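Example record

Each entry pairs one chain with its bound ligand, adenosine-5'-diphosphate.
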Amino acid sequence: MDLKVVKFGGSSLADANQFRKVKDIILAEASRRYVIPSAPGKRNGTDTKVTDMLYEVHRQAERGEDFSASLKKVRNRFDGIIADLGISLSLESEFIKIEADLKKGSTAAYAASRGEYLNGIILAEYLGYTFIDAASCIFFNKDGVLEAEKTNECLKQLLKQYPRAVIPGFYGSMPDGTIITFSRGGSDITGSIVARAATATLYENWTDVSGFLMADPRCVENPRPIPVITYKELRELAYMGATVLHEEAVFPVRYVGIPINIRNTNQPEDPGTLIVPNADDHIPDTVITGIAGKLGFVSVSVEKDMMNSEVGFGRRILQVFEDNDMCFEHLPSGIDTMSVIVNAHDFKPKRASIIADIYRATDPDALVLDEHLALIAVVGRGMVRAKGTAARIFKALSTADINIKMIDQGSSEINIIVGVEEKDFNAAIRAIYHEFVK
Ligand code: ADP
Ligand code: ASP
Ligand code: MG
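Structure tokens for the complex follow.
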């Protein structure tokens, strides 16, 4: 029997009109039994997300300032939705508690989580579904790491008791009961956790675009939606900045093979993107599935003649990064050079120490830093079969007069990473996109 877990993002629940669309979607299929709401998002381009408003309230509380006006604004957003929907619900006692908790010094995570918590209460009332507080079933350990199995067991039991429920996204609780959140956009993860516990047939993730697009719509005009994508491809794209779905949201469902369907609340008739464990029976009509990229990398290149015959050379370089508590992103290497690509933000404060340590550890002929690097991932399961994909990428970039600073092909053959200067980032993505999508 079909059972769907449905998650609605902030823009899908930004006001009463969006709530009505959400209710229509849920009622259209009896299988849509478990609902994960985000906090109300932006109603227009200049609006502020409730989550951001709550972080601001917390900042004021923390500084000992009077936060009542800011908290009142948050309350007005929720009261406005309740009034417009015409439901009889008062959040009076909730706001009294939130105000008191903030005065007692509650954390930023607690403040932020109230956005999903209150929105969940409203949505449950509006749908006539049971409200389940995520603090009672999404567990983190004292270090803030999700306790996946404990959570799964507890949720399983709860869901058995309640056939239709709303479980707010984004937060859970630690062993001492303190509220903690995932990183931003984390309601996607809650949806995935609930889908696993419910043994759902499908996890529907409703947002404001008609699926995963082949490139960021802020960079490429009208990019094509991707009909079917594998978890692996999605993970590569999400990690590299295609943020439609939180990069960690595939893990809980991947474990049990539940597909995810990205859908558009504002255009529910569109099929969206289906994310599946493997797509052997769905041959894409483009060689590449999608393109994503990120700014803010540094390449640290170490040159030394005959480094390949020096046993332990690579390890010594990587040891320097480990000793400086840094992870690396890529490791392209040549005969006498090896480059370590790292995140610029983390690298900057440790720059001097890392350079000195590399000199000490490897006695290189040269050490070259390439800053302001952008990485672009071209991802596609179709690349395994197609010949000449890399050549087409390079041709497209050279025709656009863009210099390639680095190349790395993942061993799984489903992605090719190219490094370009940050200033060429958007043009490079457009050039690659138009090479493969005619
Ligand atoms: P929600 O609030 O529903 O969780 P998000 O804002 O987190 O929605 O994610 C949807 C947004 O992701 C889109 O509005 C779009 O601007 C952005 N985005 C970035 N890259 C892509 C892509 N490749 N495909 C679709 N959307 C993308
Ligand atoms: N409301 C939270 C955020 O803005 C979580 C989410 O929307 O998924 O990050
Ligand atoms: Mg999101």
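Residues 108-127 form the longest helix (20 residues).
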